[in-house]
Amino acid sequence: MVETNVPAASRRLEAIVKENLQTVRGKKVYRGCPAEYSPAVWAVRQAVQQGKFGPKDLLRRKAHWHPDFSVDLADNLEQHNYKFAIHIFSKLCQHTLDGRPVIWVTPVGPMGHYPVIAELFNRLGTCCVNPKLIFPFAMDEWASRDGGPVDKRAFPYMTAFKEDMEEQFYGKIAPAMRIPEANRHFAAGKGLLQYEADMDKLLAQGAGVIFTGGVGKIGHIMFWESTFGARLGKALSEKVLWVRGAPLTYGTIDQNETTSSGSAPVPAFANTIGLGLFVKLRKYGERNPGRVNAFFGLDNDEEPLKWQRFIAQCMLAMEEADPSFGGSYIPTMPGAYIIVRSHVEKNFFVASK
Fold first, then answer.
1. How far is Cα 110 from Cα 165, in angstroms, rounded to an integer?
2. Which pLDDT belongs to residue 352?
3. Strand 27-30 relative to strand 292-298: parallel, antiparallel, unpaired?
4. Is 289 exposed, middle or buried (0-12, 13-18, 19+ CB in 10 A)?
5. How far is Cα 43 from Cα 61, in angstroms, rounded to an integer?
6. Closest Cα partner for 192 from 256, 274, 111, 249?
7. What is the rounded CA–CA span in Å between residue 280 and residue 122?
C-alpha cells in the first residue's frame, strides 16, 4: 500500500496503482502509469514541442521566481558539474563556518558534481568547511510496493542509493574530512519516517538548507511524479512530506532504465520525499532569509539524455509553480538552475513523421 503522512493523499495515490494493475501469468502486476498534467502544463509542453520559445522567452524572469533565483548557463557538461559543485560547496562553507548545521537534500542523479565537491573537501580542508555540521538527506530510493526493500531476486543488478553515494561521493572524501555516517540519512525502508523529526531538530538550531537535485523526463523532482500533482491538486500536494511505495510513471521507469541500469528493468515503485517538504523548507527560508537555497542541474544534451533540452525549456517557460511539474517549484526558493547552454539556445521543434 502507498503510504504518506496524509491519509487522503495515500488513498488517492494507491488508486493509481489499482487502476494500472496488469494481469501477468495470473498475477496482478503494476508496471507504471501514464504521466498526467494540469491543463497549464500540457499547454506549455505543446508550445515547447512546436518551438514557440526562444532564448529571450525562456530566460525572462517569471512572476513566481524568487528575487534571488537565477539561471546559470554552462558551456558543456564538465563546466556544468563544476558550477553545480561550486554553488553547493560555497553554501556548505558559509553555513558551517558560521557554526550552523546544514540540511543537504541530495539526489542520485545528476552525480557529476559529487567527485568535484569531494576534491574540494580534500584540498581545502577544515579551513573552509566543517563536515561534522553537514547532514545529508537522500531525497529518494528504489522500493517495493509497500515501501520496503527491493526484491534482490528480481533486480540483482540494482544498487541502493546509499551504495551509489558511497561510490561517487562519500568514499572519495579523505577520512579526516568525511561527513560522519551518523549524519547521513537514507530513504530506504522506513528511513523517511524520521526525516521530519530530524530536520526539525536541525531547523530549531538555525540550520542552513541546501536543496539539490535534477529534473526528470516528465518534469519531476525527487520521485514526485506529475500524476501525483495532477491527482492531488496544489493544496494537498503541498502537505505531503514523504511517500513510501510511490507508483512510478512509464516515462520515469523508461528514463531510469536508460540511466540507472543499462536498459535492464528497474522497480516500478520508490520511496521519496514529497513536494510538501520542499514547501516546508521554503517557508523556513522565508522566515530566515539567507538560510535556504535550491540548486538543480540539467546537464546533458547528447543521446540518450537529449530529452533534458525539452524539459529545460518547459521548466523555463512555466509562468507559475504547478504541482504536476515539480521542476516549476525550484525557482520559488533562492538559488539557481544550472543548465547546459545548448538546452536554452537551441530551438526545440518536433516535426511530424
1. 11
2. 67
3. unpaired
4. exposed
5. 19
6. 274
7. 33
Query: Residue for cell digits 560555497?
Result: 90
Please determine, for residue 353, whether its predicted confidence score (pLDDT) is greater than 60.
Answer: no
Total residues found in the chain within this entry: 353
Q: Tell me the CA distances in angstroms from 24 to 1, 60, 129, 155, 245, one per residue in order.
A: 20, 49, 53, 18, 20
Q: Report the run of H or E that residue 58 belongs to, with start and end.
A: helix 55-59
Three cell numbers at 117? 565537491
Tell me the three cell numbers of residue 271. Answer: 520511496
First and final CA of the chain: distance in angstroms? Answer: 42
What is the rounded CA–CA span in Å between residue 185 and residue 201? Answer: 14
310-327 pLDDT, tens digit each: 999 999 999 999 999 999
- pLDDT, residue 10, reads 98
Separation of alpha carbons 37 and 314, rounded Å: 13
Q: Name the pTM for this structure.
A: 0.96
200's grid cell: 526539525
Q: Does residue 263 register a pLDDT over 90?
A: no
Q: What kind of fold does domain 3-345 have according to CATH?
A: Rossmann fold (3.40.50)
Decide: 273 and 312 in contact? Cβ < 8 Å.
Answer: no
Q: Which residue has the higher pLDDT, 307 or 166?
A: 166
Percent of the chain with pLDDT over 70: 98
Q: Which amino acid is at 348?
A: F
Q: What is the DSSP string of 7-34?
A: HHHHHHHHHHHHHTEEEETTEEEE--B-
Single-letter amino acid code for the residue at 4? T
User: Residues 6 or more apart from 259 whose CB is under 8 A from it?
Assistant: 109, 304, 305
Q: Which of 287, 294, 322 is nearest to 66 (CA)?
A: 294
Q: Where are the domains of the chain?
A: 3-345
